[in-house]
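Technical annex, item 7. During the second reporting period the consortium partners agreed on a shared format for inverse folding records so that results from different sites could be compared directly. Each record opens with the tokenized structure and is followed by the designed sequence. A conforming record, contributed by the partner at site C, is shown below for reference.
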């Protein structure tokens, strides 16, 4: 068995630890799951620690770690399980009378808490880039790409690696990397069309109205915050709605069930998010859903409400 000297082990820990957050973000982009990404990162560091004594420094330690990470992610993706959002699977439901199709067997895309990938203090410009490149809509689109195209797009357009570096890491020709990048770009826009960020006072006002609407069960006020073409998704429920009027009809029914709720602010994928606690039959508040919002200058254009309590511990809730 290959062993690592004590000095080498200490050096590896000190030199490699600064890359842990960005490797987690990279693996999350590749896999669409925080749970799987954290497991893979643990394996990456164990494998790298075992092999560190033989690391000859022909590339940087960061590049070497990314090589190990990419191999691990591609191996994990051999099962072919893509992690979608409901809008990736079919058209929106036009009638709230049709009922909700729950699909717990689908490996849904998971949101990632901001604190897992944003170190503090950090350069503000870097934080903005990190957050924008982890938006839920982009993560959902990435999951539709073949694994190697996914890796090429992330390495080239998100991490800004040169084509020659990506070719060496993935053992591809530069021409093959450029071809894969072109195909990936055609399918996955790194910027959401029509997404115009509101200024901070406008965003704060929209979010305050969103919270108040839920805490007072005021559906009219809630829908007034949404854009005309807003989307409402609810994994693990495959059914989703589009358009303010359809969402209004759905939420009227929902509010009768959950009533006034309590919201706790958090953040996911660089976007505002809220943990929603609904009152149960016992009169106590219980975890109901985690809402991740896309906020534009015109209003809230997308809500992905991850139903259930499974994600609450991940967010420290």
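Designed sequence (site C submission):
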């Amino acid at each position: 068995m290959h062993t690592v000297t004590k000095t080498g082990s200490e050096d590896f820990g000190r030199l490699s630890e600064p890359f842990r957050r960005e490797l987690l973000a990279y693996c999350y982009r590749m896999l669409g799951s925080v749970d799987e990404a954290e497991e893979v990162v643990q394996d990456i560091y164990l494998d790298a620690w075992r092999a560190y004594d033989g690391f000859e420094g022909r590339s940087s330690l960061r590049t070497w770690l990314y090589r190990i990470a990419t191999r691990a992610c591609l191996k994990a993706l051999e099962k072919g399980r893509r992690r979608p959002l409901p809008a990736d699977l079919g058209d929106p439901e036009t009638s709230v009378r049709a009922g909700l199709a729950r699909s717990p067997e689908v490996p849904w895309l998971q949101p990632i808490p901001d604190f897992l990938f944003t170190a503090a203090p950090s350069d503000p410009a870097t934080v903005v880039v990190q957050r924008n490149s982890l938006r839920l809509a982009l993560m959902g689109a990435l999951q539709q790409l073949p694994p190697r195209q996914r890796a090429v797009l992330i390495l080239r357009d998100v991490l800004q690696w040169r084509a020659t570096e990506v070719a060496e890491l993935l053992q591809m020709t530069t021409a093959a990397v450029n071809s894969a990048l072109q195909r990936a770009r055609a399918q996955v826009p790194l910027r959401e069309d029509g997404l115009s960020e509101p200024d901070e006072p406008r965003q704060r006002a929209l979010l305050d109205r969103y919270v108040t609407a839920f805490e007072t069960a005021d559906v009219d006020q809630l829908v007034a915050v949404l854009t005309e073409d807003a989307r409402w998704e609810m994994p693990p429920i495959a059914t989703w709605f589009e358009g303010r009027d359809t969402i209004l009809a759905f939420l009227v029914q929902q509010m009768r069930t959950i009533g006034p709720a309590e919201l706790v602010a958090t953040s996911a994928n660089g976007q505002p998010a809220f943990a929603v606690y609904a009152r149960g039959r016992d009169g106590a508040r219980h975890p109901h859903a985690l809402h991740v919002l896309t906020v534009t200058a015109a209003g809230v254009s997308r809500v992905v409400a991850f139903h259930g309590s499974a994600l609450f511990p991940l967010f420290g809730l």
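The beta strands are 226-234, 237-242, 261-268, 271-279, 285-296, 299-307. Confidence is low (pLDDT under 50) at residues 1-6, 123-127. All partners now use this format for quarterly exchanges.
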